[in-house]
C-alpha cells in the first residue's frame, strides 16, 4: 500500500526518508528487509526482485531514486547503505543482537575483528562467509533459528542477497539488510569514492573510472534519467 512516505518508482515502492535518524526510528521495531534502491534496480526489470522490494523497505541509496521521489512530490535524501549499516550498529548495538554473513572468509573475519574493536559491547551471535551451497544454506537457517539474532547483515551483491534474505526471513523473522561490498570498504580492502564525488552525487563516475567493466551497469543510470526526464518512471 502506498502512503505519504513512499511512492512507486518504475512500479517499485520506495520510501522517502528525510534523514538517517528518521529511518533508524522507523526500522527500530521492524522485521523486514532493507533494500537499497537505485537506478540499476529499477531498470533491472526483475519481477521476483520487484515483488521482494515491494513487500519490504526500499530506501533511496542512489541519486536517481532521490530525484524520482522529488518528481512525485516527496522529499528524500540519499542514504548510502555502505554507511547506514554502521549507523544501525551504532544505534542498536547495546540492546540488539547481530549476525553477519557474506564476502570472503578473510573479509568477514577482518570485519568481525574491527566491529568488536569499534563496539566492544556488541552482541554478535554468529557470522560466516557468503559462499553457500544447499547444505550451507540449511545450516545457516538452523543457526539463525537457534541464535535468533535481531539484525542480520547479508553481503553478497544484488539480486543474490535479496533472494537469500527473502528465503531467510521466512524462516527467522528479523531485520535484514543487504550490504553488497560494504565489508570490503569497512575493513579498508576497498575504498569508497572521495568525499567530493559523494557530495556531488558522482560516486557512480568514480566507480566507473576504477572499474571500467561497470559500464553496462552505468548505462542503466543514463536510461533511467532519460525516462525520468520524460515522465516515464
Provide a descriptive summary of the structure in words.
The protein is of the alpha/beta class and 233 residues long. The chain has two domains: 1-79 and 194-233, no CATH class; 81-192, PrpR receptor domain-like (Rossmann fold), CATH 3.40.50.10660. It is 49% helix and 16% strand. It has helices at residues 20-27, 39-43, 47-54, 63-71, 81-92, 105-118, 134-147, 160-171, 182-186, 195-199, 203-210, 215-229, and strands spanning 6-9, 12-15, 33-37, 57-60, 97-102, 123-128, 151-155, 175-178. The strands form two sheets. A six-stranded parallel β-sheet has the order 4-3-8-7-5-6, with helices on both faces. Strands 1-2 form a two-stranded antiparallel ribbon. Strand 7 (151-155), helix 8 (160-171) and strand 8 form a beta-alpha-beta unit. The longest helix is centred in the last third of the chain and has 15 residues, at 215-229. The two termini are 18 Å apart. The mean pLDDT is 90.
Question: pLDDT below 50 for ≥5 consecutive residues: which ranges?
Answer: none
| SSE string, helices as H and strands as E | EEHEHHEHHEHEHEHEHHHH
Q: Strands across the major sheet, in which order?
A: 4-3-8-7-5-6
Determine the structural class based on helices, strands and strand pairing.
alpha/beta
| Beta-strand fraction estimate | 15-25%
What share of residues is helical?
Answer: 40-55%
Mean pLDDT: 90
User: What's the shape?
Assistant: globular
Number of domains: 2
How far apart lie the N and C ends? 18 Å
Task: Summarize the main sheet.
Answer: 6 strands, parallel
The number of distinct β-strands equals 8
Amino acid at each position: 500500500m502506498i502512503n505519504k512516505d513512499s511512492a512507486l518508482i518504475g512500479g517499485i515502492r520506495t520510501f522517502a526518508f528525510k534523514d538517517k535518524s528518521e529511518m533508524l526510528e522507523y526500522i527500530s521495531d521492524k522485521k523486514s528487509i532493507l533494500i537499497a534502491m537505485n537506478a540499476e534496480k529499477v531498470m533491472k526489470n526483475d519481477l521476483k526482485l520487484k515483488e521482494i522490494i515491494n513487500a519490504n523497505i526500499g530506501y533511496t541509496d542512489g541519486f536517481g531514486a532521490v530525484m524520482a521521489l522529488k518528481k512525485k512530490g516527496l522529499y528524500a535524501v540519499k542514504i548510502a547503505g555502505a554507511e547506514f549499516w554502521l549507523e544501525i550498529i551504532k544505534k542498536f548495538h547495546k540492546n540488539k543482537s547481530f549476525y553477519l554473513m557474506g564476502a570472503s572468509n578473510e573479509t568477514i573475519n577482518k570485519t568481525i575483528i574491527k566491529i568488536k574493536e569499534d563496539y566492544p559491547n556488541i552482541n554478535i551471535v554468529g557470522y560466516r562467509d557468503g559462499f553457500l551451497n544447499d547444505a550451507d544454506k540449511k545450516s545457516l537457517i538452523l543457526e539463525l533459528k537457534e541464535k535468533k539474532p535481531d539484525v542480520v547483515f547479508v553481503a553478497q551483491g544484488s539480486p543474490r542477497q535479496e533472494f537469500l534474505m527473502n528465503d531467510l526471513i521466512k524462516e527467522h523473522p528479523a531485520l535484514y539488510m543487504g550490504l553488497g561490498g560494504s565489508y570490503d570498504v569497512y575493513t579498508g580492502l576497498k575504498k569508497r569514492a572521495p568525499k567530493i564525488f559523494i557530495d556531488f552525487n558522482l560516486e557512480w563516475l568514480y566507480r566507473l573510472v576504477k572499474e571500467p567493466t561497470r559500464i553496462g551497469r552505468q548505462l542503466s543510470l543514463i536510461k533511467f534519467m532519460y525516462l525520468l526526464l520524460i515522465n516515464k518512471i
